[in-house]
């Protein structure tokens, strides 16, 4: 599957939003290049604050600025913004309902060269469990820009996983408007549903194409809003296709797969198979090689869809 790519969609969009919203401030833990906030810093140096390698302090200062009337954006590697500063996020940001937007870069196996210490596999599980916190994972460059503008213009705590460097354009920006708690169907199908987010979206589209060649019609749902979740779309997937595969760049415990399984288990039980990191730490290596090692390629997604169909066939008729 071919797609156009956009360079630095997050950093570029953040700098553009700085022009339109003077209350917007950005904080860094000495990672402006990695988070792409150097683009904002170069335009608005008086509204950019580098707190150094002190992530807990960064989050607390962001909360203080937010409670003083600013919209504060602060970010670092996804593992740091969720694990290293969890208590500060819970108490200073979420408990105070502060207008702080947490940004996580190089989540999961996206950070191939940095290995286990920098491969955030737990961020979605941690942050979606925190009251008042919204959690979003854009599937392409279009959604990155749209979700960023949404969180900047709507008060309250939010976590946004963002792509670093290039991101594909899979959703037509013309007419697209992000809505929290709403997903996007990118492919119709009645046999099985592939629910996904982030870098796994193009792999799910490739898997759907492979399944189609075998006569299997796979629905593809881009679930960029992890919390709030589009529970209506999840139930429709269960009712209408009877089998679901969730693919995510995250531990299979507690992330999007867990959220989908919770809804399915409470509303319309059907097979839910999860593609992701299976409760293990990461490794150093190229992203494509890691996808093979962790069984997260389009071929693995298609294989899970076939297994889900087998399980579906064993269910008693409703």
Give a verbal description of the structure.
There is one protein chain. The protein is an alpha/beta fold. It folds into two domains: 166 residues, Rossmann fold, CATH 3.40.50; 130 residues, Rossmann fold, CATH 3.40.50.920. It is built from 13 helices and 14 strands. The strands form three sheets. The chain has a seven-stranded mixed β-sheet, with helices on both faces. A five-stranded mixed β-sheet has the order 9-11-10-13-14, sandwiched between helices. Strands 1-8 form a two-stranded antiparallel ribbon. Strand 10, helix 9 and strand 11 form a beta-alpha-beta unit. Helix 1 packs parallel to helix 8 and helix 4 runs parallel beside helix 6. The chain is globular, with a radius of gyration of 19 Å. The two termini are 37 Å apart.
Give a brief outline of the structure:
The chain has 318 residues and is of the alpha/beta class.
Quick tags:
2 domains, Rossmann fold, alpha/beta, 7-stranded mixed sheet, 14 strands, 21% strand, 13 helices, 5-stranded mixed sheet, 318 residues
Write the layout of secondary structure elements.
Elements: E1 4-7, H1 9-20, E2 24-28, H2 32-35, H3 38-43, E3 48-50, H4 55-67, E4 71-77, H5 78-84, H6 86-94, E5 100-105, H7 123-128, E6 134-136, H8 141-153, E7 158-162, E8 166-169, E9 184-187, E10 192-196, H9 200-213, E11 218-222, E12 225-227, H10 231-241, E13 244-251, H11 256-267, E14 272-277, H12 287-293, H13 298-313
Helix pairs in contact: 1-8, 4-6, 9-13, 10-11
